[in-house]
Amino acid sequence: VRSAMPMFKALELCPEAVVIPPNMEKYVGVGRQVRALMLALTPQVEPLSIDEAFLDLAGTERLHGMPPALVLARFAQTVEKELGITVSAGLSYCKFLAKIASDFRKPRGFSVIGEAEAPSFLAAQPVTMIWGVGKALAATLERDGIRMIAQLQRMDRGDLMRRYGVMGDRLYRLSRGEDDRPVDPNGDAKSVSAETTFDTDIGALADLVPVLRGLSEKVSARLKKSGIAGRTVVLKLKTQDFKTRTRNRQLADPTRLADRIFQTGLDLLRREADGTKFRLLGIGVSDLSDDEKADPPDLVDLQSRKRALAENAMDALRDKFGRKAVETGYTFGKGRSASPPEPVEE
Hints:
CATH superfamily of the largest domain: DNA polymerase, Y-family, little finger domain
CATH architecture of the largest domain: 2-Layer Sandwich
Structural class: alpha+beta
Mean pLDDT: 87
CATH class of the largest domain: Alpha Beta
Helix content: 40-55%
Number of domains: 3
Distance between the termini: 30 Å
Radius of gyration: 23 Å
Order of helices and strands: HHEEHHEHEHHHHHEHEEHEH
Shape: globular
Oligomer: single chain
């Protein structure tokens, strides 16, 4: 049993394991506390996920009275002392290498990669350490006899681009430790989505529908909280043999409504529910914009107008009495995966 292993696989290997359900509310709350401690160090904080972020500490040495390495070490101590959790930190001159450094010696790790030693450090690493080199590209590089970053460092940009297109330029730059992406605290999200991995594979449409509804409500809550909407609905499925299926549909107008996201996703899901068993289900929206022009009244589909009004009434009740004050028939009594979510700040 290892980290990030699907629960059903872990239980196959260790049937007597005691499974403790996650407490996402507590997880989100602690994540916000950690984020507040980060912002006390610098306003330049770019979140990557609920528990990971880039910080730009350039120019803060006079403010803190110590170099960035000591600032990060003290930050890790503060988090552990005040919140009772450990963190891993990586320090470097660019985002690519800072991320690599943060992944070393987990848990409770702290690594620094300087600009002078970056080329020699990278030379000794496999090509899979480069951001964007997944299984498919790694296999292509392997067929070309390229396994180590040192080999990429000996190749010129033109050759790499002729072989691998735009990715060739990335291989050239990152293999040399060149990454000029700034830390952007105001980076716009490209999509808003939610997904869940099942403890056991599910193939019946009747069992997938409540989960899809719960996830649609989670996405909708995030859109409404952020004042944005999306025009393309994206359905994500992963089969029991770990193959991913992605289906999408563009809407006539942007939406932030759970009902519209769900109904569109349900239509896509019905086409895939052919008896195949799935281990993961996700729903999301892309092509984001502000919500000013979202969900105009539908003069043809009067039922959708009624459902939109009902959803607004449900939102008002949930705001006043809590997210579980009212549920739809799709999710009521259908378990944790389908329950209305608590709002989450990204």
